[in-house]
Amino acid sequence: MSDSFNLRTLEESLKSVPSQDLKDIKTHIYGxxxxxxxxxxxxxxxxxxSNNFVIKTYGFKAKKEDLRKPRIVRIGxxxxxxxxxxxxxxxxxxxxxxxxxxxxxxxxxxxxxNVLCLQELWTLPYVFCTREKYPWCEFAENAKTxxxxxxxxxxxxxxxxxxxxxxxxxxxxxxxxxxxxxxxxSNTGNIIGKHRKNHIPRVGxxxxxxxxxxxxxxxxxxxxxxxxIAMNICYGRHHPQNWMMFGLNGAEIVFNPSAxxxxxxxxxxxxIEGRNAAVxxxxxxxxxxxxxxxxxxxxxxxxxxKPAHKDMGPFYGSAYLAAPDGTRxxxxxxxxxxxxxxxxxxxxxxxxxxxxxxxMCQRLPLYAEGLTxxxxxxxxxxxxxxxxxxxxxQRQHTNDHQF
Amino acid sequence: MSDSFNLRTLEESLKSVPSQDLKDIKTHIYGxxxxxxxxxxxxxxxxxxSNNFVIKTYGFKAKKEDLRKPRIVRIGxxxxxxxxxxxxxxxxxxxxxxxxxxxxxxxxxxxxxNVLCLQELWTLPYVFCTREKYPWCEFAENAKTxxxxxxxxxxxxxxxxxxxxxxxxxxxxxxxxxxxxxxxxSNTGNIIGKHRKNHIPRVGxxxxxxxxxxxxxxxxxxxxxxxxIAMNICYGRHHPQNWMMFGLNGAEIVFNPSAxxxxxxxxxxxxIEGRNAAVxxxxxxxxxxxxxxxxxxxxxxxxxxKPAHKDMGPFYGSAYLAAPDGTRxxxxxxxxxxxxxxxxxxxxxxxxxxxxxxxMCQRLPLYAEGLTxxxxxxxxxxxxxxxxxxxxxQRQHTNDHQF
Lengths: 403, 403
Prior knowledge:
Largest sheet of chain A: 7 strands, mixed
Helix content of chain A: 25-40%
CATH architecture of chain A: 4-Layer Sandwich
Number of domains of chain A: 1
Number of helices of chain A: 10
CATH topology of chain A: Nitrilase/N-carbamoyl-D-aminoacid amidohydrolase
Largest interface: A-B, 111 and 112 residues
Order of helices and strands of chain A: HHHEEHEHEEEEEHEHEEEEEHHEH
Distance between the termini of chain A: 27 Å
Number of strands of chain A: 15
Oligomer: homodimer
CATH class of chain A: Alpha Beta
Mean pLDDT of chain A: 94
Radius of gyration of chain A: 22 Å
């Protein structure tokens, strides 16, 4: 799959396409051919230029209703590279990324973002490729009093902005263990709550199960002044049942803070899974990745037959927002720090639910029963065979022959 | 969304794109930039040309294993328009579509297709837009002895081909009621079993709930000589939990016979949902639609504010196959009868399952419990609020103000 390992965005590739073809291709890729960019304030633009990051915007519209006023929300997503070498002291690395992200939040505030989400583990490099515990475990922080959370609480209050803060969590009350967690900070500056990553990868450089377990917080939805939000952290993106439970709990916006490298399965599926989830659950999804290549001091291997090396290759950015009607924003750059701002009307969620009735015809009891059976040790899959003779033949066939 | 109502395929739009850009765009769209067309036999090509349908092919490769031989299967998907006017007698319409499909099956046999699936309700027009019961209910047939099933049994045995036959079923043993059903015919010519559509649409022209209920056959997987197959019929494509249960029951290929019109949500999501399901469940998916515009004698309305009319607009074809590694075949034409032939190695399913461990980290007990709670009448969503004061403020806010 090395051919997909590319730092150009799709939007750059599309620049050469003649206009009629472009319209068709865009319809295919975004679910619509028209563009609705928002204006960017000059102060936000100035902050972006002087701090070398990109701002992209997109607007989604819902139908006008009589009884409900529009529920317009500006959603922000931040993608960054690390800001200091991985060989610098932990405190230096952390201060550097704080400074960088602080500037991006200022730009978000200048453009009136209401709800902002940072990338997964935004305060640290993606260190799990190393399988080393130190100094990396030092980045883990208390979900109420830690440095990253405390840093963002100030911004949340100052800018009247809900901020989702994905951290490496240290649970000091329960054996000092570590979790992959996202904390929701209210626009009042108070913490509303937290969610711990439900699905943990075990592939390639993603040695997360060496550091923490599957989360124990269920599928919480956080009621904020700007809508009901939830976080499906990283690998949960591949699990439709995880998206589904956030929907059943009433989410209107589900963030997917992630860390993903180019040329991978995730790269192929990046723009698929967020859109699929938005439609299946009639809510908005925001899929966020980091950017840049992170080089470590000690070499490591990736279980792919290749020689040891000191980096995972570039993370591909590409943050985007998908709407319940199947349309999506363009993707952010694959190699630059950036802020995506999308304006949505949350009324679209219920409008789509009424139109396509996915929730009504979802048949939850059927699946509650099916999954309950499927996780029993004596589960027998519902398999229908032509007859027992054929069954024996097939077994032999499967073992012995090519077909 | 009228801008997406277009009969050109994406592949036609891509013809104008310069080669480097084309590579990037194809990587985005198909999950790979290389092409693996299979050769088409001259006899199949001859049948296609003289009967005015298109054959497209694509090959997918899996890793070589030591203990398992490759499990190469040729999968076929058929898309057709109706073959006689909807005003012709039922028997004439049926004989005409039988003759057309017979020729396509002959071509499939000439190119060694092992498992073939026809589109949803292949023996009849998509009549539910009319909400009329007669003559349309006459197309319903017994799932063991009906005309469509009987017609295909002969071909299945003659060509050593498993054929999936989606029909309008008449259950004469249980009150003559009607179902939307797919019957699996073994390559021996015997019927292995049937599955009834699980999720029924209630939107626009898709008045299916006027004719039949949600299926009562669970999520069966059919063990055939060419792999374990299942059918997620039409609207179940939008329901990830439906795809998931077929995976839990062991499916390696899941067909999605459908009937979908252009410019719709389904058009926007067509190439998204099949790929998403293939990756999430580590199996192959085959998404199939009919083509052509079907004109009825009596006018009907579509609940979209537009005047009464006599057709739903064109069905957009676009059959394709998606693999568990996130790649997919090109789409079939949007406006022509066609046969898609894909060669796959079923070993890819387990290989992807081992690599990405989606099944292992799926956490079924968590979701069995979550869905069991969610379908209770006294279900309380897992919602976390900042505090009760804020909660009251928010309620007021939601009712009274724009935010």
